[in-house]
Write a structure and sequence with these properties.
Helices cover 35% and strands 23% of the residues. It has four helices and six strands, in the order αββββααββα. Strand 5 (94-97) and strand 6 (100-103) form a beta hairpin.
């Protein structure tokens, strides 16, 4: 593994404790509770530099290593997660068989947060911002 890749392997992650979250679907007028298990979330968005080092492809039209990756598909994002896991010596989170994609939510490798995890983190961040304002 190159030194450049190793420098990115220490990507800062934040431990999110988990908890309970009320979710809703206004389209079908339904509400439910989701239990969020503890998970790690990157402190910063994936940069074009990291994306290029892992995939050997530049996702943006400009060449600025510290800018966040934009304009990639969900499939590109999960492929990036699998490649990052491989290069870190971890298992892949996503099993891809044609159009059938399955995520191992219990694994400890790189994956995208679920919608519930993302909402929980956003609510937690707003709460912490207001508490420590």
């Amino acid at each position: 593994m190159s030194k450049e890749i190793l420098s990115y392997m220490d990507y800062p992650m934040v431990r999110i404790q988990g908890g309970e979250l009320q979710l809703r679907d206004d389209g079908i007028k339904s509400k439910w509770k989701a239990e969020i298990s503890p998970f790690l979330l990157a402190r910063y968005p994936v940069t074009t530099g990291l994306y290029y080092i892992i995939t050997n492809r530049s996702p943006n039209y400009f060449d600025q290593d510290l800018k966040p990756v934009v304009n990639i598909s969900w499939n590109d994002a999960i492929s990036f997660c699998n490649l990052l896991s491989q290069k870190s010596g971890l298992r892949e989170s996503y099993s891809i068989n044609g159009e059938n994609i399955v995520c191992d939510w219990e694994s400890n490798d790189f994956r995208l947060p679920s919608e519930a995890e993302w909402q929980f983190t956003c609510i937690l961040a707003v709460y912490l911002f207001l508490v420590f304002l």
